[in-house]
């Protein structure tokens, strides 16, 4: 997928989350392990969000290896920013529709 299509899907996900009451904290957070597309907060929970789009069923693009990198990157984010709060890992699937999948795990 082109960077332009990826950016478009990510912006749709940001708009979707903001409409649902999520506060967008940062986008495209990088560590030496990988990247987190969107970091948001709703109520007292921090959400690390992976955005996937494209043909077929994009949820299957979130592999155990990818999720492991997201978790390691989230750990670095939490330590670096001295954050001590509840958190979870979510996905936003962008196709013709937008689907939120909470608490993705291995």
Q: How does the helix and strand content classify structurally? A: alpha+beta
Strand order of the largest sheet: 1-2-3-4-5
Give the radius of gyration: 13 Å
DSSP helical segment count: 2
What's the β-strand tally? 5
CATH fold-type name = Trna Endonuclease, Chain: A, domain 1
Total discrete domains: 1
Largest sheet: 5 strands, mixed
First-to-last CA distance: 25 Å
Write up what this structure looks like.
- There is one protein chain.
- The protein has 106 residues and is an alpha+beta fold.
- It has a single domain, classed as Trna Endonuclease, Chain: A, domain 1.
- The chain is 32% helix and 36% strand.
- It has a 5-stranded mixed beta sheet, sandwiched between helices.
- The longest helix is centred in the N-terminal third of the chain and has 17 residues.
């Amino acid at each position: 997928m082109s960077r332009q299509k990826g950016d478009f899907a990510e912006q749709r996900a940001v708009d979707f989350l903001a409409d649902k009451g999520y506060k967008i904290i940062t986008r495209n957070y990088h560590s030496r392990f990988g990247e987190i597309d969107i970091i948001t907060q709703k109520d007292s929970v921090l959400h690390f969000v992976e955005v996937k789009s494209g043909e077929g069923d994009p949820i299957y693009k979130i592999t155990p290896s990818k999720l492991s990198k997201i978790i390691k990157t989230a750990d670095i984010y939490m330590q670096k920013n001295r954050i001590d709060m509840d958190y979870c890992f979510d996905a936003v699937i962008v196709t013709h529709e937008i689907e939120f999948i909470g608490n993705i795990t291995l």
